[in-house]
Amino acid sequence: MAPARLGLAPPETGRAAGSPRPSRRPDRATILADFGPLGALVLLCILFAFLSPQFATWGNVRNVLDSASVLAVIAVGLTFVLLLGAIDLSIEGVMATAALSVALLVANSRNDLDFGFMGVLAAVAIGAGFGLASGLLSTGLKIPSFMTTLGMSAIGIGIATVLFGGVQPALRSPELAEWASGQWFGLTRLTYVAVAVVLIGLLVQRYTRLGRYARAIGGAEELALLSGIPVRRYKTLAFTFAGATYGLAGVMVTTQLGSGIVQAGVGQNFAAITAAVVGGTLLSGGRGGVLHSIVGVLIVTVLVNGLVLIGVSPYVQGAVQGVIVVAAVVITAWPLRKRLRVVK
Amino acid sequence: MSVTDKTGAFSRLGDAPRLTQSARRQLLLTVMPMVVLAALVAAIAIANPNFLRASSVWTVLDSAVPLMILASGAMLVILVGGIDLSVASLASMASVLVALWIPALGGWAVPVVIIVCALAGLLQGAIHVVAQVPSFLVTLGGLAVWSGVALLASGASTIPVSGTTLDWTFTRIGAWNVPSAVLIAAALVTVFALVLAFTPVRRWLISIGSSEPAALMAGAPVTQTKIAAFVVSAACAGFAGIMLVGRTYSGAPTLADSLLLPVVAAIVVGGTAITGGFGGIGRTVVGVLIITVLRVGLSVAGVDSSYEQIFYGVLVIAAVAMTIDRSKLPFVK
Lengths: 344, 333
Description:
heterodimer; A: mainly alpha; ABC transporter involved in vitamin B12 uptake, BtuC; 68% helix; B: mainly alpha; two-stranded antiparallel ribbon; 12 helices; 72% helix; globular
C-alpha cells in the first residue's frame, strides 16, 4: 500500500495543477496553492470579526497566538515528514512519553530528581529517539509509515501510562512555570519558543540537505535514489527531527498544565495533519513547507477560537477538522483523478 | 505467435524461483498464526490448568466477540488493499446512538443504528473511490467526525441503558452455558465464510487487492466491491458497538476507541497482508483468538495492564513487518 502516494500518476501530476497543460496553468495553480490558504486565513478572520465582537480584540489575538504555539512546533516537524510523502501518526504517543518524562525529570511531586533544563533536553531527546525508531522501522523493514507510526504511538502511550503509574506528577519547578506564564512584550514565552522553532524549521528547510532532499524525495523518490541521494538516511533523519519537535511540544504542554499527563497530546495529531494539509503541504509529498504549515496552524487555531466565540460546542471541533482535512485533500486531489489510478 | 512463445518461456523461467518464494511465504502466513495460537494456549494451560475448563474457555471466547465482529468487517477493507481506521470510533458512536434511541425505538434501534453506520461507511467508501483519496486518510477524517458526532450526541457523558432490550447480546444459553454473543459471532463468521466461499466476492476482493488495474481490465466490479467493503466494515463496527452496550449497560463516546489497534493487530497477526490481496475470514478468527489469548496470558503472567498498549504497538509493527508483501511496493512512504 502506498498511502497518499499518487500511484501510477506520472511525476508531473505531483502538483495541484493536474495533467500537463499550457504553461500558464501550473503557475496559476502554484500561486493558488501558495496564497490560497493565506487568503482563507484573512477571510476567516474577517468573518469571525463580524460574527463576534470579542474576536478582533488584542486579548483574543494573544489567546490565538498562545494556543497556536504548541501546534506550530508540532507542525514544523510534521512538515518534513509530509514533504517526504510519508505520514506521522505517532504524535500523541511521543508527546505523552515526553510529557511524563519531563514531569518526572525536573523538580516534581513524585521523586527527588531535579535536572532542570537538562530534563527538558532529555525529553526532547526521547522524542527524537521515537522519531529515529519510526524512521528506522519504516526504511529498514520497509513498512508504510502510517503503520509504523501508529504502532509507535501505542508504544509511546503505553510507556507514558507505565511512567504515570496512577499518580500524577505535578511540576514543582518555578523557573519552568515561568516559561509558561511569564510574558515578553505581552506574549507568553512559549510563543517565542514556537517562533524560534519555526525559524529553525525554515532554516533547515532552506539551507540544509535535510530540507532540500526531503522535498526531492517527496517529489520523485526514484529520481532522488537514481541521483545518488542517500534516501533512507534522510528519511530517517526527517522522522528524527519531527520526533524532537513532538518531544518539545510535549514539554510545552506539560509546562502549561503544570503536571505530566498521558493525554498531553490528545487531538494534536489530527490537528497538525489538518493544519499542514489546509496550509498547502500536500500529503503526496514534495509540495509545501514550514511556512505553509504555519499558515495552516493559524487557520486551524482561528477556526477553533472563532467557533468557540460564536458559541459552537467544543465537541464539534474534532469533527470540523475531520471534515476540513478530507475536503482539502479531495479538492487538491480532484484534478488528478484517473480511471486507472490506484489509490489504496 | 513466436513472440508469445518467447514471453511465455521467459516468464516461466523468470517466475520459477519467485513462485517458490511466494508459495513459501503463503505457507508461512498460513501455518505461523496457528502455531503461535497453539503455543500460546499450551503455555497458558501449563501455567494455569484451569484455563482449559469449559467455563473459562467460554469466558475467553465471550470477551473476544466485539473484537471478532470489528475485525471481520475491517478485514475486507484490508483485503482490497485499503485500511479502515474509523471502525473503533464508529463502534463508539453506535453505542451512544443505540443507548439514546432504545427508549424511543425499542428493539428497532439495533437495525437502525447498523444502517446509520453502514451509511457512514458508504460515505467513506464513496469519497475514497470517487475522489480517489487514500483510504487511511478518509477513515482518519471519519474517525474524527464520528467521535465528534458521538461526543455531541451524548454530551460527552455515559448514557445508561435500562430494560431488557439488549439482553440477547449478553446471556448464557442451554445446558452448556454457551454465551449468546459467541453464537452470534460464530453465525456472523459463518455468513462471511459462506459468502466468500460460494460467491465471486472473494475473487473480486483478492484480485482488487492483488492488482487493481488488472481487476478493472478483467471486468471485476472494482468500484462497487471497494465501496461494499467499507459499508460492511462500518456495519460490523456498528454491530460491535451494540454488542458492547449489551455488556456495559451503557453507551459512551469513547467506549470502543481503544479497540482500533487490537483490531488491526488481530487482522495482520492472523496472516492477512496489509498490502492486500491475501487473507480471509479464517485467518482473522485465528488472529482474534491470538490477541485475546495473549491478553489473558499477560494477566496470567502478572503483567500490568498498562503495558498492554506497548505490547499492541510492538505486535502490530512486528506482524506487519512479517506479513507485508514488499514486491508490491516500489517505494515505501
